[in-house]
Design a protein that fits this description.
Layout lengths: L14 H10 L2 H7 L10 E5 L3 H11 L3 E9 L3 H6 L9 E7 L5 E7 L19 E4 L3 H10 L3 E8 L9 E6 L5 E6 L33 H16 L3 H11 E8 L4 E3 L1 H14 L4 E10 L2 E9 L7 E10 L2 E9 L4
Parallel strand pairs: 1-4, 5-8, 9-14
Antiparallel strand pairs: 2-3, 3-4, 6-7, 7-8, 9-10, 11-12, 12-13, 13-14
Helix pairs in contact: 6-7
C-alpha cells in the first residue's frame, strides 16, 4: 500500500516558461525525457523526524517554507508494517507536506511511539541522504543560519575546477541531527560553459515565480533594453560596471548560437573583446517590442558611415527589474 497525494496547486503558465520551452526542448528531447515508467520529475522528498512540530517549525520559521497539507494520524496495519520494514510496535504516522519554494516539496512525517532506530546513519552508511537548498549568496545564508543557532559543518567550499567549477557548498544540521546542504553557483557551473546538450535543472533557473507586476510594465522594459545598448556601447569600465549592476541580474545568462556567457563578468569581458575588435562601431536600435516581461530588440552594429555592418535580434527576459536572460540572434550567422 502506498499513500498518494493530490495537491490543488495551480499550474501557472507564463511567457517566460513558454519561451524557455521553445528554446530548450524539441519534440524529440521531450520524448527522450519520458522513460518507460512515465516519470517526469521529482514531486517531493520525504524525511522522518522524531517530533513533527519541531520539524515543521524548523522548515517554516528558520528556512521560511510553508506547510500546506496534513494527513493523519494514520494507524498502520500489520501487513503494511511488515511490507515496509516497520517495527510492529510503532504507532500511527502523521504527515505534513511543505512547499519548499521553487522545486520539489518536502514531506515531513513522524510516527507515534516510534520503535525504530533513533540513530542517524553516518555519511558513509548505505542509505544516508541529504537535502540540498539553493541560495544565491551562500555566505549570507550561512550567517543567517548561524544567527538562528543552526550548526554549520565547516565553511563553504568553492569548487575550483571540473564540471562543478564555480559551485560553493556547505553542510548543516537540523535540530534533530539530520544533515542538509546549502549550495550556490550564481554564475553557473563549469560544465555549462561547453554548451552541453543536457543541463541539470536548478531552482535558480526556474524564473516563473520571480516575475513581478512591475516586470510587465512595457515602458519600464523598453527603458531597460535601451540601457542594455548603453552598456554595450560604454567603453569606460567604471560606467559600464555601474550600468551592468543596475540593469543585469547577478546570474544573467546570455545565450548565443555558439556559446553561453553566465554572469555579468563574462558578459563584460565579451563586450570589451567586441569593442577592441571594432573600436569605431556602435550598437543602435531599429525597433523594440514587448510582450509581458519578454522584450524583442532589433539592432544594428557598425560605424557612423556604415551603421548596419551587422544586424540581428535579441530576446530579453526581465525579472525583478533586471535582465535575467538574453538570447542573441545575428542575421546571416551560421
Amino acid at each position: 500500500m502506498k499513500t498518494h497525494y493530490k495537491s490543488n496547486q495551480k499550474i501557472q503558465t507564463s511567457a517566460v516558461a513558454l519561451l524557455n520551452l521553445v528554446f530548450f526542448f524539441s519534440a524529440s528531447e521531450q520524448a527522450e525525457a519520458q522513460n518507460n515508467a512515465g516519470i517526469i520529475g521529482i514531486d517531493h522528498v520525504g524525511i522522518n523526524v522524531p517530533d513533527l512540530d519541531q520539524g515543521v517549525t524548523f522548515f517554516s520559521d528558520v528556512l521560511g517554507f510553508k506547510p500546506v497539507t496534513q494527513l493523519g494520524p494514520i494507524p498502520l496495519d500489520a501487513g503494511w508494517k511488515e511490507a515496509n520494514h516497520i517495527n510492529p510496535a510503532t504507532g500511527a504516522v502523521t504527515i505534513k507536506m511543505i512547499n519548499a519554494g521553487t522545486g520539489a516539496s518536502i514531506e515531513v512525517f513522524s510516527y507515534a511511539d516510534n520503535k525504530g532506530s533513533k540513530v542517524h546513519p553516518n555519511s558513509d552508511d548505505i542509505g544516508a541522504s541529504h537535502i540540498a537548498f539553493y541560495t544565491s549568496d551562500i555566505n549570507e545564508s550561512v550567517k543567517y543560519l548561524k544567527s538562528k543557532g543552526v550548526k554549520i559543518l565547516g565553511e563553504p567550499f568553492l569548487t575550483p575546477s571540473g564540471d562543478t567549477a564555480g559551485e560553493s557548498w556547505v553542510y548543516f544540521e537540523t535540530p534533530w541531527g539530520s544533515k542538509m546542504e546549502l549550495v550556490s553557483y550564481p554564475n553557473g557551473k563549469g560544465y555549462e560553459k561547453s554548451n552541453p546538450k543536457t543541463v541539470l535543472w536548478s531552482p535558480k533557473n526556474a524564473s516563473v515565480k520571480s516575475v513581478t507586476a512591475d516586470d510587465l510594465d512595457a515602458k519600464k522594459n523598453i527603458e531597460i533594453v535601451k540601457n542594455h545598448l548603453k552598456i554595450w556601447n560604454e567603453k569606460d569600465e567604471t560606467k559600464r560596471t555601474a550600468l551592468l549592476n543596475q540593469f543585469y541580474a547577478s546570474d544573467v545568462e546570455m545565450v548565443d548560437r555558439h556559446f553561453i556567457a553566465i554572469g555579468k563578468d563574462e558578459i563584460s569581458k565579451f563586450i570589451v573583446e567586441l569593442q577592441t575588435k571594432n573600436p569605431d562601431f556602435r550598437f543602435t536600435d531599429k525597433s523594440v517590442e514587448t510582450n509581458h516581461n519578454i522584450v524583442r530588440l532589433y539592432w544594428q552594429f557598425g560605424s557612423k558611415e556604415k551603421p548596419a555592418v551587422v544586424s540581428g535580434m535579441d530576446l530579453f527576459v526581465i525579472e525583478n527589474g533586471k535582465i535575467q536572460k538574453l538570447y542573441v540572434f545575428v542575421d546571416g550567422k551560421e
